[in-house]
Structure formats: structure tokens, C-alpha cells
Amino acid sequence: MVKKLRDKEKCDVVIVLSHLGSVKEAEGQNTSVLLAERVPGIDLIIDGHSHTYFSEPAIINGTPIVSANEWGKVMGEGHFSITDGAVTAFDWNPVKITSAIFPPDEEMTALLEPYVKAAEEGLKEVVMCTGAEFEFGDRLSRYKEIALGDLVSDAQVWYVRRSGIDVDFGFCNGGNIRAPLPAGEVTKENLMTVLPFDNYLYVLSLKGSDVIELFNFIGTIKRGSGAFPQVSREVRYTLFYNDDGSSGISGVTVNGLPVDPERTYRLVTNDYLAGGGDGYEVLTRSVETFNTSMLLCDVVVEYVKTLPQPVMPETDGRITITGNISP
Predict the structure, then answer these.
(1) What percent of the chain is predicted at pLDDT more than 90?
(2) Apex CA 250: angle with CA 254 and CA 243, to 5°?
């Protein structure tokens, strides 16, 4: 098609508007990166699907690739420099759409008002029933395995697997959990109070050696820190705390097996940790990163609807604490 456009149609500039994604999610997938590698003569690829935020173009085989993130948060502004009918440069500016730069239109605000009201009423929707309170206490998610942590971590794995992406395990930081769930009826608002941050679900691919380093880092986290992890049911390990303040980890298994340093693992977590937050720098070494564009809270809401009701606040021994066990 590029040859046809150049030779027959005499086009000076060839732009591909695609929905391929720049992140490879499965074997055999044609990404925008692969397209640029294999097809010369494209002046620009404006991509979608992976919702990637490009602060500057990715230049692949001389072709710039850009994408304007997701959900109208960013408007891509691109400028070609063309000399004698040939593209000589391309400049890219991702313009963030904020109310400070683009004030809300009064007529549109009035039009949206009933929908905003309906959304607020939607927060009162009952999405699950619990057989007892899911405890939070004095920030217990930062000290030990709790039922809320199991629920949130399992929900992450459930969602991406349901979407056709196989993952080995999931986890979240205990500091992301902020409140208990009541006994009895639980609403969307209750779950948003538990998970108040706008965290998105990210799928990462790590070398087994980096997964080992991930768990070794977990072994160094002080109890009470927001970095203390809650993990999905595929994971088991023991944390030990010594009287001198030192700590460590042992008995790590994923799906019943020790971590193999030679294989690649897929895991799901939130965007904050994926970016190295709370000291999880090892996660930034992901060889493939995929933003599901789903808020963690929304994922948990959908997950709890599928569970047999009432849901009991139970743990199953994913994390064992030994040694100086007092918080």
C-alpha cells in the first residue's frame, strides 16, 4: 500500500492511523513497532490500542510512532517539516486536556448534569454481601496477609485472565488499601473507599531472575510500610523478622513451584508499583508492559459480583510471618 500511495497516487506524506498497539501482548501479534520495522516508507504511525503515552515519538526504522494515551486525557499535536516534497522532520507535543487549559463549556456541563447525578446514585449500588466485616484495623494490610488483600490481589488475576491474558500471579501494596468492608451489604462506594486511588491495572513480564529479586526486595520491607505486599493465591512465602531489626524471605513458590530464573513470568499489579513506586524498582525492568486501562477499583467491583454470596473474609496462608511477629 505504501508503494501504491507513493508511486501511483504520488503522495508526498504517508501516515498510518492504526489500532495495533506498541506493546506485544501475544505471540504473532502485529504491533506498530513491527509494522515500522518491516515496512519502509511510512512517515508517521499514529497508534492506539495499548494506550501508550508518548512524551516524544518512538523512532523505529526511521518512522516515528506516537499515541495520545487514553480516554481523551491527551491530544497529540504533531508538526511535519517538509522540504521539496519530502519529510525532513517531525515534532510531537502531547497536550494534556485539563480544565485549567481548556475550561469546561457551560452548555456541555449543563447537558452532563443528569448523567453526573446518575453516576452518584450508582455509587449506592449493592455489589456484594459479606458474612462478616473484612477487617482493616490499624492499617493491617501493611503488616500481614488480610482477607481484603487476598480479595484485591485475586481480582487482578481474575480480570486479566478473563480478558485472555495469562498471568502467573498478582500483587498490590498494602498501602493501597485504606478501609474495611462492612458486614452485610457492600456498595460501590464502600469499595471505592477501600481503594480510593485512580490506579490502573498493568501486566508486566519479568525474567525469572528479576522475579527472584522482586521477592528478595519484599523480604527487606519493614512491617508497617505501605510497600508491604498483599498477594494472589498463586503465591506462597514466609517472612521472618529478627530481634535486631533484620528481615528476610524464604520458601517462595509461584503456582506451587520455586521461581525459575531461566523462564519469563507475567504478573499483574497497579501502575504505581509498575513505575517503581514504593521501592519496587525491579518492576521497571519489565520486558513487556501492558496497561489494561482498567481502574483497580472497577476490576474489584466486577470480581466480587461473580463470587458466591455471602462472601466470607478468609485468608489461606499465602504469607507466613515468623520471628518477631508483633507489629
Answers:
(1) 84
(2) 145
* pLDDT band at 86; cut points 50, 70, 90: confident
Which set of grid coordinates corresponds to residue 38?
518491516
pLDDT at position 327: 57
Q: Distances in Å between the alpha carbon of 133 and those of 129, 152, 210?
A: 10, 15, 37
pLDDT, tens only, 204-225: 999 999 999 999 999 999 888 8
C-alpha to C-alpha distance for 31 and 47, rounded to whole angstroms: 9
CA trace torsion 6, 8, 12, 17 (10° rounding)? -70
CA distance 156 to 176: 14
CA-CA-CA-CA torsion sign (269, 271, 275, 279) = negative
Tell me the three cell numbers of residue 321: 510471618
The CA-based angle 125-127-131, given to 5 degrees, is 125
Amino acid making up residue 42: I
Residue 86 CA to residue 80 CA, distance in Å, equals 10
